[in-house]
Predict the 3D structure of the following.
Amino acid sequence: MVLTRLTKVTTALKANALELAILTGHMLLYPSGIVRERPVTVSASGQGSGRPVVLLHGLVDNRSVFVLLRRALIRNGRDCVDSLNYSPLTGDLRTAADLLGRRIEELCSRTGHERVDLVGHSLGGLIARYYVQRLGGDARVRTLVMLGTPHAGTTAVPWAGAHPLVRQMRPDSEVLRELAGPAPGCRTRFVSFWSDLDQVMVPVETACLDHPDLLVHNVRVSGIGHLALPVHPTVAAGILEALDEEERESDAPGEPGATSVA
């Protein structure tokens, strides 16, 4: 019992130290991610070597959070990677979801691809999910990977509830009720990574997606916190595996799946 408790404390301390290191590094990189990146270039044939991937950051963040993940994607043949910055002053995640939809339409037009893959961290995953479920984005998004996304709402940081986007991430918000509603025939595959030491997701299981109409795979990550999800190499490997998975034989939703990594 004592040994088990000591192991848990040690693991938590390591995770917190990693979170602090990531936060420090991200503060240094943050200025580089403020401006919009250059439009994605394509090969002479008009298409890259793989389906385009769109990255969507969380609240009070920007595209710089995906520096390491972007490199991993490019190393593994995804040479068409785009990132979307939305303003922290956005008052409604539906607005950001609409912006995401317009960006994806531009990307598809520019690259010649009909569908893309999406990776969203925290609030970014919720915005991407709203686009897919409520704005017809399932016609454009083959796989949506979400990292530490509050599907059932989070009660963390009570004082931050003054921000309208934070209120939309609270349990039983209007947006979450919309997303919990029927979504028959949704064609997108959903993969949701959640961490057992995520201090932003309260409770941690809120980052698991459970919806009867969606094809969902939940992935449990052990020993890392919220900020580590977009940068941890084990998670990056899991994301690559999810994006490279072959098309299912049927687009109809199946039974939810779950695995563990890290």
Observations:
- The chain has a mean pLDDT of 87.
